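User: Fold this; tokens only.

Assistant: Input:
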Amino acid sequence: MYLAVLAEFSLPLSMMPILIELSKASNQDRKALDRLSMDRTSASYKMKYGLAEWFHEQTVSELKTEFFSLNIDESTSSNLQRVLSILVSYYSPSRKRVVVQHLHSTSVIKVDSLSIFNHIVDVFDRNEIPWQNLVSVLLDSCNVMRGSKSGVESRLRAEKARHLLDVDGDSCHHIHNATHKFCKPFDYWIEQLLHDLYNDMKWSTDIREWFTEICLLLGLKFTMPERFVNHRWLSCFDVSSGTQRLFDAYTVFYYSFIPKDEKPLYTSVVASILSHRNINPEAKTRIRELQTEISNKVKTLTADGKKRKERLVERLFYNRRKTRLILSFYIAVLPMLKSYVCLFELKEPMIHLLHNQQEELFRNFLSCFVKPEVLQNLTAKKMKELSISDEVLLDEKDMFFGKTATSLMEMHRKDSGVVQFKHQAKQAYVSCAVYMQKKLPLDSTLLRCLSALNPKVRGGTTTLKRLKKLPILLPNVLNDEQAEEFGREIHNYNVSGSLPPFNEDGKPLRLDVWFSKLFEDNSYPALYKIVRAILSIFHGPQVESSFNVMGDIIDSRSGRMNIETYNSIQIVKYGLSSRKESESSVSVALDQFRRKDVVYDPVDVRLCHKIRGSSGKYRKILEEQRQKLAEKQASLNISANKLQSKLAAKRAQHAAEKKARLEHQLRQEKAQRKATIGARLKKLVALKKKKK
């Protein structure tokens, strides 16, 4: 039965354990299960005005007492609605760690700084959230969000929260954009290769099957080419790594699409691959058979398919050395940028590492092409001011290109393509470095001071000085008395030998978990307050993951679902995620609401009231909407007739066309009968005349 349900509604097989556990939990209360009934509409209003409202009220109540930060972004849904989403991060004393909740999503008509600002203010005012508790806001770096004069952040700081911290924009976005600068000097040579490989395998089943067999014969595991995403430039590294792994297989496969008169020129390339991989004679014979079979495919290719094959042949054969040089260069350099983004996309507090990681990333990147003596003892602030000109650069031959690229250049030193590649690589380094130098806040006093919260740097004078600046940087957190107490506490904290270990079972603890252990005995109350505020700061684009989920909830088939319903689903989803205790849990929802004893175990009375009252609230809102519509129609002197639905209009149109078609058929039949009778009368008249 379960398998049949999965198949009938196209549910993923991973849902099977959850369905079974849900059935077991529901079966414990047979009386409630027998009475359970819920259609799509009732599920919608119970979710919106019942469960989601219960979660939302808990979040808002904590925001009224805890310091918090926001992550805000805007996107377009699959049914073409502009959606503004707001995530909130704060330290939860009940769960003793930082949690991220979905505060609100709303549909916006005009996306400008004033509209977004007004939406944010409306959320705060409607929920009576104090602006005093707002610590920071993480936004895109576009002018609408972070414009210095009229951006959203500037408006918030000027009109609502003057104490708002400037943590800069999303540094992960900066690194993606820096990667774009790095790739640009190569004229997107590799990016076009990645696009063509992905599309070639995606749209042609027979090509995919042939290529799978080629991989098997070469001793390589076949995987579908990954998609390169233009707006996430670091995906270029991931896709390039997969392409490098299958590069020999692509070469053997696309050899079949070389024009017949040019194939002898590149036979040695394929032969060297087969020899290097020790392919046995039987496999070689089968490869030649496949190549002949694939060559016959050329005649049936579409115009786009032919152009795509020509581009692939150009990159894999005609300009093979250029492709290998750039591809290996990407794989050698881009991991530095990728590791930074992966670190700060983690869903745990990492703000204490942000400054040091940015400094380390920029220093390591510069070391690839800048003279070592220039970088020696260079502080982050001086790196920010460094003039990246030819005077400080290494000679092109001494720059870092990676093992494979260096080996290829050594073999073809005087080749014009190698000379051009070196020049392009130098441009890539400089363009990327200049962009990072401009965008990364390497000279930020705030981020340097926040790095003092790292337990590993405790005990030094520099750490103590930076900790002392925190109450000044966060003026909304401590009063004068607490600020004085904070000064005494940080002296004790900086030299204390009785702090909890930072590692547990050989793994470092999350920063918020470590501090929760430190503050269990309430020995540092002022420091505790400052730390709770700082831990809330966003450092990565978490709101984007909510937009990824939006595509699963709102699609072309759910066009009638409004943003309010999507908002309620997201509130529940994030609320459950914040309550997750074990990674091995099948479902947080089952853990949260399952009762071992359905008769005597307590239930949440407020949640029950909200679920039961959701129907009445839904009907009340519908009635208010009807009244507003009636008032608007009356003011505009519009007839208050019930508006025809899309389905009703379609049926009415179909009925009218059917009626017209039947009437047309009747007229044609009537005309036919009239013509037949007329013909017979003429025939009779003619016979009478003949007899006379």
